[in-house]
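Why does residue order matter? Because the sequence determines the fold. Keep that principle in mind as you read this record.
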Amino acid sequence: MIANFFNKSTPFGKLSIVILLSLVVITNVFSTETMNFSLIFFLEKIAILFFLLINLYLIHFITKKNKLIKDNIYDLLLIVIFIAMFPDTTNFSPILISHFILLLAFRRIYSLRTLKNPKEKLFDSSMYIGIATIIYPWSILYLLMPYAAVISFNKRTIRNVIIPIIGFICPIFIYGTYLFLTDSFKGLNTPFTFNFSFLNYNSLQLLIPLALILGFLIWTIFSTTIKIITVNNELKNSWYLILTHLVLSILILIPSPIKNGAEFLFLFLPLAIIFTNFLQLVNEKWFKDVFLYLFLGVAILRYFL
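Structure:
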């Protein structure tokens, strides 16, 4: 039933997504151990809700505009479920802000599939990645994505190799100039802090959602990749880019200094695209329902652990 409801991109379906996300944010507010019921507190949570809604809009724009999924909203439903699984993603943090800016970069990178303005898209996307790197330094790994797009969409020229470097350096240079002029280098800490301790993932609140996502990812990615590469020529080139996106997102998690679940925000977009394409290839409606209900059930169970 749930699979059939979100199988079409309808206004009522999108409204349901907004309501679900609002419920998730509200639940996260009242499930925190320390709550400060002040006007600023509630304004901050409302701002986060609107910020997440903008994120959802950008994600759906990327997936639909670039034909990464068909006419459904499984991607939005999965994103909301992922947010419920990892509630720390609803807190203001460098990761949340950096991810939003990266979405602007991904919008330009995935649109390289068309012939329109490739050089502008490469410059814009790498510039956004540079800004995101200033906010969250490990975002620098996504600088490989414009080059993956250049290879995937067969736009290999010397200019297209140089442009991403220039675009990336521009905001870094401006930021460095600002620090120099304001004499702020002295109080600046080493930007690339890291944490290779994964003990936090032993808690059931993180372990169960992680095990579910990892298990289904391993199960679905190979069969979905084979079918898309051998059958769907339209998505074929973009699929290589999606897989690159997934790998880079995983690599960012490994050294992340934050290990509370918020770092998994980087994984949400590629995971949603991969799982949505898997659901689109499944013919059995009951299996789609089981898949989505299982994810929804784990997201709800997580609040009782």
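The mean pLDDT is 89.
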